[in-house]
Amino acid sequence: MNVLQTADYIVFFIYFVLVTAYGMYIYRSKKNTSSSSQEYFLAEGSLTWWAIGASLIASNISAEHFIGMSGSGFALGLAIASYEWMAAATLILVAIFILPVYLKNKIFTMPQFLAKRYNGSVSTIMAVIWLLIYVFVNLTSIIYLGALAISSIAPVSFEFCIIGLSLFSVIVTLGGMKVIGYTDIFQVVVLILGGLVTTYLSLTLLSEQFGFGKDIFKALSVIAEKAPDHLHMIFDKSSPHYVELPGMSVLIGGMLINNLAYWGCNQYIVQRALGADLKTARKGILFAAFLKLLVPIIAVLPGIAMYVMHQNGMFQQEMVDAAGVLKPDHAYPTLMNLLPAGLKGIALAALTAAIVASLAGKANSISTIFSLDIYKKYFNTNASERKLVLTGRWCVVICMAIAAVVAPALKSLDQAYQFIQEYVGFFSPGVLAIFLLGMFWKRTTASAGLAGAFLTVPIAAVLKFLPMWTNGAFPDYPFLDRMTIAFFIIVLLMVAISLLKPEPKEQHEAHKIEVDTALFKVSSEFVIGSFIISGILVALYTVFW
Asked: How far apart are alpha carbons 485 and 231 in whole angstroms?
């Protein structure tokens, strides 16, 4: 029942006041006398390693994790955790091989890298694609899932939640990257604490249902006994879930492509580290990788526990919609409704923290790309620093308003997390191909980059819809496998175009990116941390294969 007690309102009010007050303190105490665009968009290197790591996670984890991943945990099981655990491994690769290239070449936005390495056309096409994805896929899905969850546990309407989340996020975003980065530290603490509270509740409920009291370790043994099919990380072709998580593709195929594109070629993520020195940025990314290992505990495990309880006769009405259709994404809101007074307020604050931090991060990246790569380039080449910041702020307001209007259209989804991954995956193969070839193969031409930008969506679309158009004559590959196929097709096409029509030497030199093997050297502390994370991942996949 979506009723909050006085204690819940008090807890949530304290959270709201603390975030607002801390954000204002950061804004005033760290504000420079001159309001520069680099200060507003990148925080001008003022973020510490722990602020970078916390901000990466706070911006990454949102309603799609709490609601969507719990829903996928209910439907698929632990295998969905590969998105998180393999992201930890990917972050290490990004810190070693990709981030140093950006910092060495003084890159502030992803389109700026494309303009420097290829040309303005490639940069503009990809900037427009990113803006469309961020607004119509990312922002809308976060607002929708957030409003769905909050309206399920609090006595407020779905529409009011959309408005409230959008306004709160705009307020945080208008302070710039410094405010976002440092408030994200607070947000991460809140969302992890609140997530653990909900995980603990789900396990104690499960333990009690089977007569073991509140013993969470007994609950884990119950899951192992009653739902062994939900404790496998790798599905074979006989599994009904193979189409969503196809075997080894979660380790070395489409998921690696998806993760590298997300963590290494994504303004929304990379922006946190672009204003820092290499050592600080690498520490922050490694810290984020450690935090990533914890996410399935707070996002996937509650969904699995809910599945076992549902199979044993509990929450039959709560897990279906008005038409009686089972909705896996109802798992997390149902659990939150069962929390006692006070703890429910903590969980609500955690969910709100995750949503607002993620919305603020994406909105800031949207304003960064639009202001620096669209507005200044095409509308006002002589724009002052103040004008760029003002434009960025107006962009935040407008894009959030658009996303809020579009968000209710997502009500028909069953597993929103999978929807997001699949349709973002239309762009990821091309993005990754353009960036990797641009960094690590000097002969890649601007024409090849332009072809990669134009072809990424059509190739992905053909691979998805060709089986339907040919009545099954063409194989219907799982979407992660489609990403792998699309990536290699685009790479081969870009290589062929570059070899068949090489650029003149002077043109090639004008678009040179500095890449030196010395950039990839890492500290002993980073090596130790990477080995620890890798060892944990090997152990997890060995146990839950």
From this structure: 28
